Amino acid sequence: MSEKKINVALVGLGFGAEFIPIYQAHPNANMYAICQRSEEHLNKIGNTFNIEKRYTSYDELLADPDVDAVHINTPIPDHAPQSIKALKAGKHVACTVPMATTVEECEQIVNTVKETGLKYMMMETVVYSREFLFIKEMYDKGELGKIQYMQASHPQDMEGWPEYWERMIPMHYATHVVSPVLGMVNGRAEYVSCFGSGTVNDDIAEKSGNKFAVETCHIKIKDSDIAAHIWRFLFDTARQYRESVDVYGTKKSFEWPLIEGENPVLHTAKKPEPEIPERVEVPDYAHLLPPEIQKFTRAIHDADHLSFLQGAGHGGSHPHLVNAFLKSLVIDSEPWPNAPLSANWTSVGILAHESAVAGGELKKLPEFTLE
Ligand SMILES: NC(=O)c1ccc[n+]([C@@H]2O[C@H](COP(=O)([O-])OP(=O)(O)OC[C@H]3O[C@@H](n4cnc5c(N)ncnc54)[C@H](O)[C@@H]3O)[C@@H](O)[C@H]2O)c1
């Protein structure tokens, strides 16, 4: 890449603070400013990482002409309004998942990106995790054969997390399961059908406006014969956290471990029955990164943050995300996922919930997510 340096501002410093040392080490970034609401934590992070430019006001940050790009890690309801504001202020946007919580907001972001010519990337950890990169590499080399089916699960008991999670609908945070099944085959969702199952307690049902404990959705992939299945829960169901994806091919299939920390299983067709399954060690993909940030696939700054206690370090994805975003800015290419693709991944979850409320009715993804 060139010597060009992008002035990056990080907004939201819980999970977001993890990205600071990566930007500081990346040859194409200047970790220019940080922003979060409370001054005390802002100064703590600013002092820890030696960052001078500090903002408690997002609007003041956006008024700073030296900011080239913002990386947003604020609570979910802020993602869409803050992304749109930043684009309108002339800043490129990287935003943590999900893109938005309504299809209308997704469309506004896609349109604002078109109008401004700026970049938008949703920072989806799963599609830059070593597990995803491993399966995708096998698939791209033809080792899996033809993919016949995929399934992905994201059970996570969010009791004890920040309060805004109690107001969330499980499928509104579904990108960790939608993105790997669509990303594996570079496909777009065409339509979905989802069922709700079980019930959450009255308090959560009232705060979230959703009564279902589990939401379970089928996705028809456009221009493909593959249907994928995903499921999600946030409260009142017993299970260890897991962000899994299983991929079934004609030659080989990959199955995620049932328990965190175990190795996944690779099944090979046409072998004697006991030899079909084999536990495999997933390799790291740091070699795809500039040397300065390779160490961050294995390093976590705040290992006690709930996102990592439940989150398995996000598969070493953080430096890959930073690199993909900066690369798109430096060489002026479309980031992956760009705005329409992020909108497709995010809208699957939003429409899945609408489908569940309507008893499983088929919901089509809007045209602007298929571009
Ligand atoms: N694997 C993943 O992709 C992953 C993992 C963890 C968190 N996340 C996402 O990151 C986001 C933050 O999660 P978290 O656990 O760090 O939450 P958190 O509540 O711990 O932190 C939120 C941060 O945003 C700041 N903030 C809130 N409103 C703001 C505003 N208006 N302007 C500026 N700053 C503001 C807060 O001060 C705080 O620093 C969530 O949207 C979550 O979905 C993604």
Automatic annotation (TrEMBL):
SUPFAM superfamilies: Glyceraldehyde-3-phosphate dehydrogenase-like, C-terminal domain, NAD(P)-binding Rossmann-fold domains. GO terms for molecular function: glucose-fructose oxidoreductase activity; nucleotide binding. The keyword Signal does not apply. It holds the Pfam family GFO_IDH_MocA. Residues 6-122 form the Gfo/Idh/MocA-like oxidoreductase N-terminal domain. Keywords: Oxidoreductase. Gene3D superfamilies: Dihydrodipicolinate Reductase, domain 2, NAD(P)-binding Rossmann-like Domain. Its EC number is 1.1.99.28. PANTHER family: D-GLUCOSIDE 3-DEHYDROGENASE, UDP-N-ACETYL-2-AMINO-2-DEOXY-D-GLUCURONATE OXIDASE. This is Glucose--fructose oxidoreductase. It comes from Gimesia fumaroli. The lineage of its organism: Bacteria, Pseudomonadati, Planctomycetota, Planctomycetia, Planctomycetales. The gene is gfo_2.
